[in-house]
Amino acid sequence: MNWYKIMADAISLARRSLAPMILLTILINPCGAEEPLEVFGFFQANYFFVDRQESYTNPFFGLNRRYEHQRLTFNIQQLNLFLRRELSSKLTAWVNFEVTNDFSSNDGWGSFSLEEAWVKYFHHRSLNIKAGLMIPRFNAMNEVKNRMPFLPYVIRPLVYEASIEDLMPMNRDFLPQRAYFQVYGLFISGDLQYDYALYLGNAEDDFINDDPEVTISAGADTTTNVLVGGRVGVKSHHITAGLSTSFDKDNQIPIGLGAVPRFRLGSDLAITAGRFTLESELIRVLHDLDHPELSLDKTFLYGTLSAQLSEKWLLYGSYTWLQDDFFPSMDKGMSGIYAGLAFSPNDILLKFQYARFSIVDGTIRASEQVPISLITNFEQHTLALAFSVSF
């Protein structure tokens, strides 16, 4: 019997199971905390009408297949529950639980996850330290992507949309998903604010053990790979801009490429002029791959122009584009056009959005699942109504 493995597994399991319980105990019974426990959150309920058309062709084999599908859907797109407590003038604890798509463990619907559980130490506005599970700072939206009552979107820019992760699994490649240690701060010089963030985390999710039968506890990192990243930004009265980067390794062991070094490069820009705001982001994902005939690189961008019609009404239009050299049908890219309207009376945000997504002449390579190469064209029109409620 391998006692070393048994003890290592027991210690790892204890760390993973006790840490959240200790943090929740501190939140609920803090022994001298300065402020009471705050419990709050939101949910977003949706109505979708989707009209989808797609075709698959191979002129050499004379193949031409076309499909059309329409559907109506009501669901709870997302629900987040937050717990927050000021432990002292320097320490703050935070927990964030997230539920998506009418979560039901019995029916296998949606997902339920612990998104954040961290303690922050505030030394000065120029130096803050977070330890625990957190969403790292990458571009402008990553940290706030799940704050739906403050976003006008029903469907967020594609790589930030949690409700479609099962349909577009490559989305997780564009963003660092979680970190466990982050140092960040803010410096002010005249009319300018400069901010920075540096973080450290585990390897990507595909390296995390999800098999409870093996000797490593479920949820533990199975490698010595780490995530390292950060962002620097500047803000004036009307302009906010930032540059982000991260480095980790992409698990391509299933296709025989091993753990491939991966670099993410991001930029974000926001400009406000009167009632108008332009927000944009660009993300490039680059791989250090020793196969010149193969590429795993990816690109994502979006831009949104919004107009604050009044204190409660917001109108916006948006363009988004996602391209993946490796993922089937995404080699030429998928484009999306959004148009929407948001109305905010008190603690509820009503939203209407039209979205059109399209792929033109995307390639599906021959594989064990698809015996011949195909050219695919895809177009989807979505009408969505939603309301976000804060509580």
Structure commentary:
This protein is mainly beta and 391 residues long. The protein has one domain (3-390): Porin. The protein has two helices and 16 strands. A 16-stranded antiparallel β-barrel has the order 1-2-3-4-5-6-7-8-9-10-11-12-13-14-15-16. A hairpin with a 2-residue loop joins strand 4 and strand 5 (127-134).
Give a quick summary of the entry:
By secondary structure, the chain is mostly beta strands.
Main beta sheet: strand number and arrangement?
A: 16 strands, antiparallel, barrel
First CA to last CA: what distance?
52 Å
Output the CATH homologous superfamily.
Porin
Rg: 23 Å
The pLDDT mean sits at: 86
List the domain count as a whole number: 1
- CATH-derived architecture: Beta Barrel
| Molecular shape | globular
Q: Which sequence of SSEs, written as H and E, runs from N to C?
A: HEEEEEHEEEEEEEEEEE
CATH topology: Porin
Helix content: under 10%
Uncertain residue segments: 1-22
Counting DSSP H or I runs of 4 or more residues, the number of helices is 2
- The top-level CATH class is Mainly Beta
Structural class: mainly beta
Strand-helix topology:
Blueprint: H1 3-28, E1 38-58, E2 63-86, E3 91-104, E4 109-124, E5 127-134, H2 171-174, E6 179-189, E7 192-201, E8 227-235, E9 239-252, E10 258-273, E11 276-287, E12 298-308, E13 313-324, E14 334-343, E15 348-364, E16 374-390
Antiparallel strand pairs: 1-2, 1-16, 2-3, 3-4, 4-5, 5-6, 6-7, 7-8, 8-9, 9-10, 10-11, 11-12, 12-13, 13-14, 14-15, 15-16
Task: Throw out a few tags for this protein.
391 residues, Porin, disordered N terminus, 16-stranded antiparallel barrel, mainly beta
